[in-house]
Write a structure and sequence with these properties.
This protein is α/β, with parallel strands linked by helices. About 35% of the residues lie in helices and about 10% in strands. The strands form two sheets. Strands 1-2-3-7-6 form a five-stranded parallel β-sheet, sandwiched between helices. A two-stranded antiparallel ribbon has the order 4-5. Helix 5 links the parallel strand 2 and strand 3. Helix 1 runs antiparallel to helix 2 and helix 2 packs parallel to helix 3. It is globular.
Length: about 300
C-alpha cells in the first residue's frame, strides 16, 4: 500500500473511531496521519505476523492521545482486523483512548506526555550496547516539548551519540486550548540544535519530504536526529484545520460527520475503498452559519509557511 493511500485511510478511520466512540483528539489524529503513513508504508522494519520480531525497528507514539492514528495504521498493515477499530474507546476494548501495549505492534503504553523520548533513547542505547541493528523512532508533540523530561532525554541522547534514535515532532502549533507559542514559546529548531541534535525541518504533510528526511539521518558527528515536521492540526478537513476546538471535540451526527467524510472523499486516492461509507454521506445538512469557528476565522500561517513565503 502506498503511503498516500494509508494516510487517507488513517484519516477516515480516525473520523469514524472518534465519531462512534464520542472520543477526543481528532485534530491530532489528522495532523500526524501523513507521518504515520510514511513510517509504516516506507520506513519501519516490522513483521505484522511476528510483532515481537527481534530485528524490528522500535516505534513509540509518545503523544498517545493520537492513538487512533496508530491503531488504524497497525490494522491496515495486518496486525489485527480492521473491523476491531470500531471498538475504540469501548468498555473492555484493548483499543483504549490512549495507546495501549496490549495491542499487537505496540510495545509501550503512552498518553502521559514526556515519557516516550526517554524510553526511545534507552532502547537506542541498548541497541548500541548489544550491537543490534534496529533503529528507535518516536513521535512527540510540540506541546509535549514543554515537559522537562523531553530535554533531559535529549541531553542524554546527545551525550551517548545515539545516531540510531530518530525523533519526529508533530509540530502542528496547537496544544490543548491554545496555540503553543501562547502557552509556552519554544524556538523549536534552535532548542534541539542547542541540545546537540541533528535537526531537519520539513513540511510534515509532504510524503516525499518525509521519506527523504527519514532516509537521510546519518551525520558525521553521530548525533541523534530530530525531524521537525510542520503540520496543520485537523489536516484534511477544512473546518477542523487550525481550530483548537477539535483537540477535544469529536465529529457529531449531522453536518459535522457528513462534511468531514465528504471532504475526505473529495481527496480520496485511487485504489482506496471507504470501509464505512463507500459513496460518501448525504449533503442535506449544510454547516449552519455561526455554529462553529470557520477556517478563515481561526487560520494562522504556520512558522514553516511564513518562512517559505519570506524566501
Amino acid at each position: 500500500m502506498k503511503s498516500e493511500q494509508l494516510a487517507w485511510l488513517i484519516r477516515r478511520h480516525g473520523v469514524e473511531m472518534t465519531h462512534i466512540s464520542r472520543g477526543s483528539h481528532i485534530g491530532a489524529i489528522l495532523s500526524v496521519a501523513d507521518i504515520m503513513a510514511v513510517l509504516y508504508a516506507d520506513i519501519l522494519k516490522f513483521d505484522a505476523k511476528n510483532p515481537d520480531w527481534e530485528n524490528r525497528d522500535r516505534f513509540i507514539l509518545s503523544k498517545g492521545h493520537a492513538g487512533a492514528a496508530l491503531y488504524a495504521a497497525l490494522a491496515e498493515c495486518g496486525y489485527f482486523e480492521v473491523e476491531e477499530l470500531k471498538t475504540h474507546y469501548m468498555n473492555g476494548s484493548r483499543l483504549s483512548g490512549h495507546v495501549s501495549h496490549y495491542v499487537p505492534g505496540i510495545d509501550f503504553s503512552t498518553g502521559s506526555l514526556g515519557h516516550g523520548l526517554s524510553v526511545a533513547a534507552g532502547r537506542a542505547l541498548a541497541a548500541k550496547q548489544d550491537k543490534k541493528s534496529f533503529r528507535s523512532f518516536v513521535i512527540i508533540g510540540d506541546g509535549e516539548c514543554n515537559e522537562g523530561s523531553v530535554w533531559e532525554s535529549a541531553e542524554f541522547a546527545n551525550h551517548y551519540k545515539l545516531d540510531n534514535l530518530i525523533a519526529i515532532v508533530d509540530y502542528n502549533h496547537l496544544q490543548s486550548l491554545d496555540f503553543c507559542n501562547n502557552t509556552l514559546e519554544i524556538e523549536m529548531a534552535r532548542r534541539w540544535e542547542g541540545f546537540g541534535w541533528h535537526v531537519i525541518e520539513i513540511d510534515g504533510h509532504d510524503h516525499n519530504a518525509l521519506r527523504s528526511a527519514l532516509n537521510n539521518t546519518d551525520n558525521p558527528e553521530h548525533k541523534p536526529t530530530v525531524i521537525i515536521a510542520n503540520t496543520v492540526k485537523g489536516k484534511g478537513i477544512s473546518f477542523m484545520e487550525n481550530d483548537v476546538l477539535w483537540h477535544y471535540r469529536f465529529p457529531h451526527d449531522g453536518w459535522e460527520y457528513n462534511c468531514a467524510v465528504n471532504e475526505l472523499h473529495a481527496a480520496k486516492p485511487e485504489g482506496v475503498i471507504d470501509p464505512y461509507t463507500p459513496n460518501g454521506c448525504p449533503e442535506d445538512e449544510p454547516q449552519p452559519d455561526g455554529c462553529l469557528h470557520t477556517v478563515s476565522e481561526t487560520y494562522h500561517p504556520t512558522y514553516y509557511e511564513r518562512e517559505v513565503e519570506s524566501k
